[in-house]
């Protein structure tokens, strides 16, 4: 029995030696690659692709790109100058990545389905974020084109998911300079403007429109087809089931109007005259002192007929935002406590 056991152990020992040799070579390369990941861009215009990365020969990779260990780059992918793919990040499908973008470890961008994912310049896709994949809409027909367009200078943090459109005639759009914090979800066909902040665990359902400089606190849920107006603020834990007009603040489940987003307006540099005008218009619409309630259109018309208010563009914009929310294809605005009698 002893001679029979020697051979297997001898083979196992050889396998161990071979494995250790390969591991040593890999670790040596990785330790050298750490320097490359941080310094190769400054020293060379050529791209650096780690030998363990799987890069399709048809992929188009520009100069000064760094592709780390165990990354995947699909056949229709186009990567712009000075992009960095950290270890274990992946790009699939018809996906274009603009210049100076960064994919952190575990990030997945694009999917091998019809349509396209287009990402602009200087964007960061966080750890294990999933961007540009098939939507979760039961109406989506397999084989249909679907699209996602992302602008420039966006920071998309860890575990966020952003889906493509549900049909070929529409697209999911995220503009520029947005901060989308960890574990947010942006569903199919949403339209996000610029300079938006979505705090952690903000969940936005399909076809939602978010205006510039809107800000959500954490754990906010937004119903499909709602509009969040520019410069609006959504309090933490709110469930938004109707539109939030421009410049306003809401909170609660279901969210109620709680006045103007005064702190946000101050930070954005609105003048004292503009803020006073908006406050007066808000009071006329939602907090009447004469007891004559009337209809929403009557109140909006009263504001428009007040000369000193009608002269302010921000007031006209706020009034139009409210009026638009009552169109046939919209959901109305969040309730306001004064009218509900509470």
From TrEMBL:
Record keyword Transferase present: yes
Keywords: Acyltransferase, Lipid A biosynthesis, Lipid biosynthesis, Lipid metabolism, Transferase
GO biological process, one term: lipid A biosynthetic process
GO cellular component: membrane
An example molecular function term from Gene Ontology annotations: acyl-[acyl-carrier-protein]-UDP-N-acetylglucosamine O-acyltransferase activity
Domain UDP N-acetylglucosamine O-acyltransferase C-terminal: 243-334
Matching Pfam families: Acetyltransf_11, Hexapep
Protein name: UDP N-acetylglucosamine O-acyltransferase C-terminal domain-containing protein
High-level lineage: Eukaryota, Viridiplantae, Streptophyta, Embryophyta, Tracheophyta
